[in-house]
C-alpha cells in the first residue's frame, strides 16, 4: 500500500512502524514542542503532496495534532484507537506498538477537517446521549470515537471533533446505536 501524502509522526519508532505497514514518507516532530523548522517542513509537504497527521492516542499526541493543524490547514488526520496502540506489556501507548493492519486501517480512514463547519450535533445532544456527564460517559465517548474514527476525546473535545469532521446526525445516531447495543450485550 503506497501512501501519497507525507505522514507526520512523533518519532523514529513511529516511522519504523509506519514503514512496516505501508510504503510512505514521514516527518518526525521529535516531541510535543514541534519546532518552527519542522512546521515549515510540514507546510512544504502539504503544498506538494499533502499531509496526514498520525500521532499517538494520548495527551502529547493530541497536543502535537493541535499544533500542526493550527499551522498547516487542510491536513488529513488518522486516528488509532488506544487499545490498538498499547505496548504488549502495557507499559506504553503509541503508533509504534500498533499492528501493521491497524496502521493501514487508520491511514485508509484518515479524514480532512472542514473549515466552514456547520453544527449538526449540539452539546445538548451529547448530554442527552449520555456522552457528557454520567457514569458511562467516558466509555461511551471512547467507543463512539472508535466507531466514527475520530479518536478518543473528553466531552468538550468530542463536540469540537464532531463539528470539525462534519459528522452528520445519521452517522452520529448509527454509531451511538451500536455503542448502546454493545452495552446491553
UniProtKB/TrEMBL annotation:
Residues 4-94 form the Toprim domain. InterPro entries: RNase_M5, RNase_M5_C, TOPRIM_dom, TOPRIM_RNase_M5-like. It is found in: Cytoplasm. Keywords: Cytoplasm, Endonuclease, Hydrolase, Magnesium, Metal-binding, Nuclease, Ribosome biogenesis, RNA-binding, rRNA processing, rRNA-binding. PROSITE patterns: TOPRIM. Gene3D superfamilies: 3.40.1360.10. It catalyses: Endonucleolytic cleavage of RNA, removing 21 and 42 nucleotides, respectively, from the 5'- and 3'-termini of a 5S-rRNA precursor. SUPFAM superfamilies: Toprim domain (SSF110455). Its main location: cytoplasm. It is an enzyme of class 3 (hydrolase). The keyword Membrane does not apply. Its EC number is 3.1.26.8. Belongs to the ribonuclease M5 family. HAMAP family: RNase_M5. PANTHER family: RIBONUCLEASE M5. Required for correct processing of both the 5' and 3' ends of 5S rRNA precursor. Cleaves both sides of a double-stranded region yielding mature 5S rRNA in one step. This is Ribonuclease M5. The gene is rnmV.
Amino acid at each position: 500500500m503506497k501512501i501519497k501524502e507525507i505522514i507526520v509522526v512523533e518519532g523514529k519508532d513511529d516511522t519504523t512502524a509506519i514503514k512496516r505497514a505501508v510504503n510512505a514518507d514521514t516527518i518526525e516532530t521529535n516531541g510535543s514542542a514541534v519546532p518552527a523548522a519542522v512546521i515549515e517542513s510540514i507546510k512544504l509537504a502539504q503544498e506538494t503532496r499533502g499531509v496526514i497527521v498520525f500521532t499517538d492516542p494520548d495527551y502529547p499526541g493530541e497536543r502535537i495534532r493541535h499544533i500542526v493543524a493550527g499551522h498547516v490547514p487542510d491536513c488529513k488526520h488518522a486516528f488509532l484507537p488506544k487499545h490498538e496502540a498499547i505496548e504488549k506489556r502495557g507499559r506504553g501507548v503509541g503508533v509504534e506498538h500498533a499492528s501493521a493492519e491497524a496502521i493501514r486501517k487508520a491511514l485508509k480512514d484518515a479524514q480532512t477537517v472542514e473549515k466552514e463547519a456547520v453544527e449538526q450535533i449540539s452539546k445538548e445532544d451529547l448530554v442527552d446521549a449520555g456522552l457528557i456527564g454520567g457514569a458511562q460517559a467516558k466509555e461511551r465517548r471512547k467507543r463512539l470515537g472508535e466507531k466514527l474514527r475520530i479518536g478518543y476525546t473528553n466531552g468538550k473535545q468530542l463536540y469540537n471533533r464532531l463539528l470539525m469532521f462534519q459528522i452528520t446526525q445519521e452517522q452520529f445516531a448509527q454509531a451511538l446505536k451500536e455503542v448502546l447495543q454493545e452495552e446491553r450485550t
